[in-house]
Design the sequence.
């Protein structure tokens, strides 16, 4: 017996070690619920051993890159500056248009008592590592519990959705990327509004599942988050449809190209706080969309005071923003929101996003005489700056979705 | 000292200093996790922890030491990902045992033998990993022979260079 044990000692140890690992694996497979949480303590050893090196290397790399870009590589900066200024001007004009669109959307939401989610706080993080395996598509970021990161928080870039936080350690967090097989994102097609589930495939692609085969899906159609997963706020860009074919079980096989470059992630934003709120009539105020435009575009002249006086007290008239008050738009604080009081109704009238293009009319307007309040045909809500995306305000973004 | 079947000569059994024993696998894990951030296809084709496992196992020529080396490196690699812990552990335990057993019997000091050993063990590693992942964990994995052979060749080329580099840290027992 002893000689048999001695003879097959190596083999017996191999079988023993394999058996122990199979047993451990079976325990993990059998466990229902969140297995990552159960193995968190074991994983933290390796993560703690490897990530400091990664963090250090990323720091050195960024430092060297910054030195080069900030001090040595300044060729063409003037031309670039000029180009950017032009771009800013164009974007300001675009902002006016988008504000109007957002305002209109909010009016409709108010009518529907629609609850909307706002990204109220984000944390910028640097990608410092990966799993090192194409079978586990995750990345590590350099922010963890200490920075307010929690499990299941959404991770995005300025281009689109990246994934969600899977495991959180004190100073690092593990992010499951949307092209991993085990990830799932509630998504919808932008034009057709068809909803589905976005999943990663074994070879690292992304597919939109659960769209019936009798639906018409066009290649190139943008895919957005639907908000149904309670992780990603509605309306974030996910990608575009690249291929549509008939799948199995009456569903279409839709391939999606992610909007964010998932293979070259450097900086990401973690949505640490979302707020859900219902648009209210009080919040929207009694401002006509046309009046907001009148406020912003300097080419539209103010109404003469005489007209207002003549109109007052005779018939119920919609209360226009230009008739009540104008927020003092100054060049020093072009975008600062201001709250003014509608004296006719006593409600707060909040006007935000005073556009720097229109630092014009500051003359106080005559007040309207008290009388029966008329419901204006079109009301314009207060809108957070529509052009402010989370990416533009990495650390404390408050972009509406 | 074991005698090989191939050359009929005695072969050396090597050991490594503690910093090398810990540092080299850790460095391999670090590079495996870091390099794909800059070169995304790296993780698809290369498996540095596997190459380190094969090297240490072959150099020590002790099956128990080899399988334990493979087990520890594999489990550490599992812990960096989010899949179940043990998938790489089992695969690398088998490779560690196989490489050290082969090291006892064959002369694996020359580049040709190392190339072939790495090529074979890469495919064996993938076979064990996919079998366990498919039939124990029920993971859906796609395996293509063309990709497997290509990756095995790539790892063999890198492995031969890496082994000669790591040879400098060998200490005779």
Sequence:
């Amino acid at each position: 017996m002893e000689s048999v044990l001695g003879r097959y000692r190596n083999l017996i140890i191999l079988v023993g070690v394999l058996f122990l690992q199979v047993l451990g694996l079976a325990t993990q497979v059998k466990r229902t619920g969140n297995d990552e949480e159960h193995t968190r303590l074991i994983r933290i050893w390796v993560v703690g051993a490897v990530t400091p090196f990664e963090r250090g290397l990323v720091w050195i790399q960024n430092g060297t890159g910054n030195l080069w870009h900030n001090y040595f590589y300044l060729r063409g900066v003037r031309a670039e500056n000029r180009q950017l200024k032009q771009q800013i001007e164009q974007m300001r004009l675009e902002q006016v248009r988008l504000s109007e669109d957002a305002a209109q959307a909010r009016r409709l939401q108010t009518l529907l008592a629609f609850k909307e989610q706002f990204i109220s706080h984000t944390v910028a993080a640097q990608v410092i590592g990966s799993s090192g395996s194409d079978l586990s598509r995750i990345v590590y970021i350099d922010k963890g519990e200490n920075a307010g990161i929690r499990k299941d928080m959404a991770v995005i870039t300025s281009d689109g959705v990246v994934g969600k936080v899977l495991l959180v350690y004190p100073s690092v967090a593990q992010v499951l990327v949307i092209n991993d097989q085990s990830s799932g994102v509630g998504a919808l097609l932008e034009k057709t509004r068809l909803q589905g589930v976005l999943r990663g495939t074994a070879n690292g692609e992304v597919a939109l599942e659960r769209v019936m085969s009798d639906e018409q899906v066009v290649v190139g159609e943008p895919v957005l988050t639907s908000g149904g997963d309670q992780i990603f706020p509605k309306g974030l860009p996910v990608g575009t449809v690249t291929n549509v074919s008939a799948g199995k079980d009456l569903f279409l096989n839709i391939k999606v190209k992610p909007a964010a470059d998932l293979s070259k992630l450097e900086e990401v934003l973690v949505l640490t706080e979302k707020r859900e709120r219902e648009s209210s009539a009080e919040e929207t105020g009694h401002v006509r969309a046309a009046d907001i435009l009148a406020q912003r575009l300097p080419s539209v002249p103010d109404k003469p005071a005489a007209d207002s006086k003549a109109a007052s007290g005779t018939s119920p008239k919609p209360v226009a923003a230009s008739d009540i008050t104008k927020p003092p738009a100054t060049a020093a604080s072009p975008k600062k929101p201001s709250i003014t009081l509608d004296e006719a109704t006593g409600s707060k009238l909040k006007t935000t996003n005073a556009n720097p293009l229109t630092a014009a009319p500051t003359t106080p307007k005559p007040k309207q005489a008290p009388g029966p309040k008329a419901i204006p045909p079109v009301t314009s809500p207060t809108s957070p700056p529509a052009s402010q995306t989370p990416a533009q305000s990495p650390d404390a973004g408050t972009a509406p979705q | 000292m074991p005698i090989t079947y191939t050359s009929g000569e005695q072969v050396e059994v090597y050991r490594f200093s503690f910093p090398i024993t810990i540092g080299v696998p850790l460095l391999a894990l670090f590079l495996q996790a870091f390099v794909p951030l800059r070169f995304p296809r790296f993780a698809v084709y290369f498996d540095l922890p596997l190459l380190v496992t094969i090297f240490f196992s072959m150099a020590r020529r002790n099956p128990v030491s080899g399988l334990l080396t493979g087990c520890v490196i594999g489990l550490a690699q599992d812990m960096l990902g989010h899949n179940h812990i043990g998938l790489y552990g089992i695969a690398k335990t088998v490779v560690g045992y196989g490489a050290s057993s082969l090291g006892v019997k064959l002369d694996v000091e020359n580049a040709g033998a190392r190339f072939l050993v790495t090529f074979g063990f890469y495919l064996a590693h993938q076979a064990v990993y996919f079998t366990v992942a498919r039939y124990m964990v029920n993971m859906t994995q796609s395996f293509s022979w063309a990709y497997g052979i290509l990756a095995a060749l790539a790892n063999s080329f890198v492995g031969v260079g890496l082994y000669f580099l790591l040879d400098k840290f060998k200490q005779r027992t």
Notes: Residues 115-278 of chain A form a domain with the Thrombin, subunit H fold (CATH 2.40.10.340).
